[in-house]
Amino acid sequence: MSSPTNLPRMILRSTLAAFSVAALCLVSVPAFAQETKPAPYALSGELAKAGPLGDQWQGSADAPITIVEYASMTCTHCASFHENGYPALKAKYIDTGKVRFTLREFPFDPVATAAFMLARCSGDGHYYAMTDMLFKSQKTWAFSENPAEALLNTVKQAGFTQDTFNTCLKDQRIYDAVNEVKGRGEKLGVDSTPTFFINGKKVSGAMSPKEIDAQLEPLLKQ
Q1: In a domain, 107, yes or no
Q2: Number of structural domains in the chain
Q3: What is the CATH number of the domain that holds 113?
Q4: Distance CA 142, CA 195 (A)
Q5: Cα torsion at 147, 86, 212, 216 (round to 10°)?
Q6: Kindly report the CA angle at 20 between 14 and 21, in degrees rounded to 5?
Q7: What pTM does this model have?
Q8: 36-50, 79-93, 105-119, 142-156: lowest mean pLDDT where?
Q9: CB 47 within 8 A of CB 188
Q10: What is the mean pLDDT of the chain?
Q11: Pairwise CA distance, residues 211 & 222, whole Å
Q12: Among residues 8, 92, 135, 141, which one has the fewest Cβ atoms lying within 10 Å of its Cβ?
């Protein structure tokens, strides 16, 4: 049995031995590579210029992928994308911080212009709720014999009245802003809708969820 005077020396030897074992363990354990997150993508050039009313962004500003969509509210292919492709894009990529997304106005006709104006008049926090509703109900108002009346009846569901409807569609500032966004899109080569710019790359047509994956997954692996 060790004497009390030898205890401090024994404790020191035990402690040093433990540190030596720990050091060997640290050396022998392989280091795991840290997963690198792709850097945020920033728009540049003409594509980076928002219209007079600003862009309505969804998703994280730090997202590695930025998507700009140019669409017309009376475009059936755009409605198809927003009914089938967009929900998958939002759930899998936008809401998870992988994609930053904005929809820009590219109306092909006065009815589409009016619909975009109403979306803008609904307020920043309600822009996508309005565009989603209008795309989903497109068949009931866009191709009606009386599109103004049909559009009014549709947006009444979002709280518009006859007066607020008329006031919005008479707002020259909003009308000019929507058409300015379209003009900038034309400078970027947009001639059909929907047209997407995915990290600056132009992609035309209503993408399905599978096509969205094919476009985005390689960018997330860079």
Answers
A1: yes
A2: 1
A3: 3.40.30.10
A4: 20
A5: 120
A6: 90
A7: 0.82
A8: 36-50
A9: yes
A10: 88
A11: 18
A12: 8
